[in-house]
Amino acid sequence: MAFDNWGPQDLTAPAKRQLPEVAVQRGMVLEDVQSGWVGEVTRVEKTGGMHVVSLEDRRGKSKSFQLGYGFLLEGQPIRLMPPAVRQSPSAAQPGRTASGSVKVQGQRAQVAKASRIWVEGKHDAELVEKVWGDDLRVEGIVVEPLHGVDDLASAIADFNPGPDRRLGILVDHLVQGSKESRIAAEAMACPGAAGNVLIVGHPYVDVWQAIRPKVLGIEKWPTVPRGMDWKTGILRAFGWPHETAEDIGLGWQRLLGAVRSYADLEASLLGRVEEVIDFLTVP
């Protein structure tokens, strides 16, 4: 018998093996073993001297749990640790791009390939450029705004896609039953689209909503009254100028300025953009 095992012990801690220690991050999907609750990490806070994580399930309901043992990540048991100390932008990961990939040193941007990423508008293009621009320049992939997808099928036909001329298209509000889902289905029926065109989308009305609310210092995006232009309604709710096209542009620049890396964006956009980049760059 090992006498040094006598005394107070944490009976919830695993005794047989050391579990991997994983720092909690927003967007991480976890399962609490004891209750079976599965949800996405939406908030981490310190209260009463301990760290507590809030997990939101697929129905939008949240529960809070103390960090430590008793969590599964991708089906594997882990010890959930407090978040890593966030460094200032000037000191954070100098060897990484804003998308989190390893920065390629000393390599010039490639000559643009025939393949393209199409997004709905200027703001979508600027957001993709800010986060993935370094990666896309290395790959020689250009992002182009469509200024709407109402005539997407004709645009694809004019592009004439093929094995060496592929298209990845990111569409706003691509959810089941939406106008955008019908447009996407019709577009994929174009000659040459099968295998050479990938249409993906996020669930948001506008790409602005892909910025995590807490990055902007708010709990959630404001609700815009039916019949009001969405961007105008958002800026009005913020108390920002909102009456002219210039106001909209300046408001977007303020929002875009809050984005420093992929960590400031919703996972539902991150996954779709990465999927498009892989489609265009992986043989």
Features:
20% strand, 25% helix, alpha/beta, seven-stranded mixed sheet, four-stranded parallel sheet, 283 residues, disordered N terminus, 6 helices
Can you describe this structure?
The protein is an alpha/beta fold and 283 residues long. It is built from six helices and eleven strands. The strands form two sheets. A seven-stranded mixed β-sheet has the order 1-7-6-2-3-4-5, with no helix packed on it. It has a four-stranded parallel β-sheet with strand order 9-8-10-11. A hairpin with a 2-residue loop joins strand 3 (38-47) and strand 4 (50-56). Helix 2 runs parallel beside helix 3. The chain is globular and about 60 Å long. Residues 1-16 and 87-92 have low confidence and may be disordered.
Proportion of residues in helical segments:
25-40%
How does the major sheet shape up?
A: 7 strands, mixed
Count of extended strands: 11
Rg is 23 Å
- Termini separation: 60 Å
- Looking at the structure, what is the overall shape? globular
Q: Going across the major beta sheet, what is the strand order?
A: 1-7-6-2-3-4-5
Average pLDDT number:
84
The helix count comes to: 6
Strand composition percent: 15-25%
Series of secondary-structure elements, N-terminal to C-terminal:
EEEEEEEEHEHEHEHHH
Q: Which stretches are low in confidence, meaning pLDDT under 50 for 5 or more residues running? A: 1-16, 87-92
User: Which structural category fits the helices and strands?
Assistant: alpha/beta
